[in-house]
Each structure stands twice: as C-alpha cells, then as structure tokens.
Design a protein that fits this description.
- Strand 3 and strand 4 form a beta hairpin.
- This protein is an alpha/beta fold and 178 residues long.
- It has helices spanning 3-16, 34-37, 68-85, 117-120, 140-156, 168-171; strands at residues 31-32, 52-59, 95-97, 103-105, 124-129, 159-167.
Length: 178
C-alpha cells in the first residue's frame, strides 16, 4: 500500500472511530454534570473500589419528569431531600435518569452511594429512574439512556465487563419495583 493511500485509510478509520483504541473512545452518551443541574456541593468522602461488579436499579417513587428543565428540578429536589432532610452527604444515587432520556450525574462513578445499605453500597453503582414505576415501565428513551450509561461504565473501567444488574428489591426490603 502506498504511503498516501495508507495515510488516507488511517485518517478515515480515525474519523469514523474505527481506528481508535479503547482508551481513545468511550461509548458514553451525554451525562448532565452536577454543575449543570445546580447541585449542592458534595460532602461525601467514601470512594468506590473500581471496577464494581453490581449495578442496583431503583426508582425515586416521585412524579416523573420529561423535559430537561423539569428533570433538573427533580434532581435538585431529590438531592435536597437526601442531603438537607435526611442529613446525608449528597444525593444517594450515582446517577439518575429522567423520562427526557438524559442521565444526570449524582455521586458519579467514583463515590460510594447511599442507595442500598451497607452490604451493597460499597460494591455497586446506584441508578435511579426519576418517577414512579410501580405500574408501568420507564419509557424507551430512559431505558436506552441506562443501557448507554452501563456501556460507558464498562468502557471507563468503572464496571466489570461481567457486571450484574440487581433490582432494588433484590438487595433491600422495599416496594421499589426494579
């Protein structure tokens, strides 16, 4: 292969993302960072030992949100309840997902959550769908956002490649449907 042809091939592969190494490319969809949704400063110090094996999925049991503006208010409300009313160091979950199809950063990948008790919190990422899903499933765009988040966690090295998803009621005595 001539040098100009090899260069062209390499350039096309790079532009298409096909020549990227695992470190260069992660399949992470958009995650709304804490600063964008107006998070209070976190007082959490307990870090996770990554990669974790488990993902615990729950719901907030509140009204759903289906626009970025309403979901940002909902995340703020959840954080206020957890941090100000319950006295926790931050919002309990690592990530929250709205019916708008966006992922909202809670404690993030590195910080231990407060979603599932002392046995599960140190070895899991907690994801909570914003809304009440006792009688219905989250919409497809929210489920796709969760799938993208899990792929992102594997690509970043925060989740093991053989991670297991647990419903909240699988690890706690709760009515949470997942």
């Amino acid at each position: 292969m001539s040098s100009p042809c090899a260069l062209l091939t390499w350039t096309l592969l790079t532009l298409l993302g096909l020549g990227a190494t695992r470190e260069d490319f992660t399949p992470c969809g958009p995650i709304v960072p804490r600063r964008e949704w107006g998070a209070l400063p976190s007082r959490c110090e307990q870090r996770l030992d990554l990669p974790v094996r488990y993902v615990v999925v729950s719901h907030t049991a509140a009204i759903p949100c289906d626009t970025p503006a309403s979901c940002m208010r909902q995340v703020q409300n959840v954080q206020h309840y957890h941090a100000r009313t319950r006295g926790w160091c931050d919002v309990a979950y690592n990530f929250l997902i709205g019916e708008d199809g966006l992922v909202y950063e809670g404690r993030g990948w590195d910080t231990q959550g407060a979603h599932s008790g002392p046995t599960w919190n140190p070895k899991s990422i907690g994801i909570s769908f914003m809304g009440n899903y006792m009688d219905r499933a989250p919409p497809q765009r929210a489920l796709r956002a969760a799938q993208s988040l899990l792929a992102c966690g594997v690509a970043r090295g925060a989740l093991r490649t053989n991670y297991e998803v647990k419903g909240h009621r699988d690890v706690r005595d709760t009515d949470s449907p997942e």
